[in-house]
Amino acid sequence: MPEISRFYGIIIRMFDPDHPPPHFHAIYAEHEALITIQPIAVHQGSLPARALSLVLEWAAVHQAELLANWNALRAGRAPAKITPLK
Q1: 86 falls within a domain
Q2: How many domains does the chain have?
Q3: What pTM was computed for the model?
């Protein structure tokens, strides 16, 4: 599962290939959430409130890049790294 970003102890990954809807996985310590890209929302799992807030903020800024990575993976191409939240 390629890691596409990492910030504040949160790891963002996408599986190759993965099931619809378009989404990414956010991992923080022992917590994991599956976040859909359109709309940006928690689909499964959970994160602590502060970590979830950071992930949602980051995803809103990088929504187009996330969708491009989803499409790249579905086409058999490697995803691009995405700038972490600063």
Answers
A1: no
A2: 1
A3: 0.94
